[in-house]
Write a structure and sequence with these properties.
The N and C termini lie close together (about 10 Å). The chain has a single domain, classed as Rossmann fold (3-Layer(aba) Sandwich). Helices cover about 30% and strands about 25% of the residues. The strands form three sheets. It has a seven-stranded mixed sheet, with helices on both faces. The chain has a two-stranded antiparallel ribbon with strand order 3-4. The protein contains six helices and eleven strands. InterPro entries: C56_PfpI-like, Class_I_gatase-like, DJ-1/PfpI. This is DJ-1/PfpI family protein.
Length: about 190
């Protein structure tokens, strides 16, 4: 019986923030499923940093099929959840099915990995109050408004919650998440 990890995402998610953990967790031996508002081909984006721009730029990225719709997810089937960033969290946080899924992971103290704008989702569930987190730096005030203590680091671990700023921090983010994951949901 394999250990399953859930990635929750949607259109306009950052390509690297979806596909890096997807591939890294599969490489480790976990079974990974991707859930979105509907079963469909998702269209990701590439956020890049260019000289002279005050913020990141956005370009079309990869496409990838969603394995499940949020309404089909049984959180009890999954040992952990990954929440990528990009623009997807801006609209996904309004999805009641997804909020219910996320809350169940926090209530069960299961490992949660979030990156970039992903913490907008966990903030929408009230799950960041009293927690230490990082996110894309422009969200510092959002994290504080959600009751979290913002830290501008590559990866921040608070119990089973592992957060990171953006795709340049992937090595630190996945290293810390795998440490938590191996302790809470070891492969047999």
């Amino acid at each position: 019986m394999s250990v399953k990890i859930l990635i929750v995402t949607g259109d306009a998610a950052e390509s690297l923030e979806v596909l890096y953990p997807y591939q890294r967790l599969r490489e480790e031996g976990y079974e990974v499923h991707m859930a979105a508002p509907a079963r469909k081909k998702l269209r990701f984006v590439v956020h890049d940093f260019e000289p002279g721009f005050d913020t990141y730029t956005e370009k079309p990225g990869y496409t990838w099929p969603a394995d499940l719709a949020f309404s089909e997810v049984d959180p009890g089937d999954y040992a952990a959840i990954v929440i990528p960033g990009g623009r997807a969290p801006e609209y996904l946080r309004n999805d009641p099915e997804l909020r219910k899924i996320l809350k169940s992971f926090f209530d069960a103290d299961k490992p949660v990995a979030q990156i970039c704008h992903g913490p907008l989702l966990t903030a929408a569930t009230g799950s960041l109050t009293g927690r230490r987190v990082t996110s894309y730096p422009a969200l510092e005030l959002d994290m504080q408004a959600a009751g979290a203590s913002f830290q501008d680091n590559e990866a921040v671990v608070d119990g089973t919650l592992v957060s990171s700023r953006a795709w340049p921090d992937h090595p630190a983010w996945m290293r810390e998440f795998l440490r938590v994951l191996r302790a809470k949901a070891p492969l047999r």
